[in-house]
Amino acid sequence: MGNMVKVGMADMNCCHAPDAITTLGLGSCVGVVLYDSNKKIAGLVHVMLPDSKKINNNENKAKFADTGIDEMIRQVVAAGASRMSLKAKIAGGAQMFAFNCENEMLRVGARNVEAVKAKLFSLRIPIVAEDTGKSYGRTIEFYPETDELLIKAVGKAVYKI
Predict the structure, then answer these.
(1) Could you tell me the sign of the dihedral formed by the alpha carbons of 35, 77, 114, 103, in that order?
(2) So which residues are the catalytic ones?
(3) Which residue in 4, 103, 109, 160 is deepest, having the highest Cβ count within 10 Å?
(4) Of 20, 74, 67, 70, which is closest to residue 48 (Cα–Cα)?
């Protein structure tokens, strides 16, 4: 077993097997794993907001679905992954408030998931598996050795996608 590489909020990193990569406490944020099964390389970006173009202070590429995914691709390819072999697994995007949300500002989780999916679709990167929405936070761990994404949520059994 290798090391566990940690990714913070609005952050990103890459790893090679046997290392694994994790991010804690995905609420409305979305964890996007981009990986190359052949090379056993993975990258993880912890996306907080859907669109960098709507925010003035947008230097942090990892914070946004659009710029974060572009930068993550650049980093995993630089680490040795093949751009044509990249696949994605995504998790998070929870609706963390109990009340009914018609207000767009409060639909951050759903908007993050939509933005991530649209960006990956536009880049022709297939989403192999996802665990999104619902009303609880998640911690995820991705293992490039097996391509397994472990999802942990308080009070729920750990499961793999």
Answers:
(1) positive
(2) 29
(3) 109
(4) 67
Query: Using CA of residue 78, residue 83, residue 87, residue 92, what is the dihedral sign?
Result: positive
Q: What's the length of the chain?
A: 161
The pair of three-digit structure tokens given for residue 146, joined into one six-digit string: 């097996």
Residue 26 above 90 pLDDT? yes
Q: What angle do CA 154, 145, 23 make, to 5 degrees?
A: 35
Label the pairing between strands 87-92 and 127-132: parallel
Question: What is the pLDDT confidence band of residue 3, given thresholds at 50, 70 and 90?
Answer: very high
**Taking Cα atoms as reference points, which of 82, 86, 92 lies closest to residue 69?**
86
State the CB neighbour count (10 A cutoff) for residue 54.
9
b/e burial code for range 15-38 (CB count within 10 A of at least 16 → b): bbbebbbbbbebbbbbbbbbbbbe
The yes-or-no verdict on residue 139 having pLDDT over 60 is yes
Residue range 68-94: mean pLDDT, rounded: 98
Residues with Cβ within 8 Å of residue 127, at least 6 apart in sequence: 87, 88, 89, 90, 117, 120
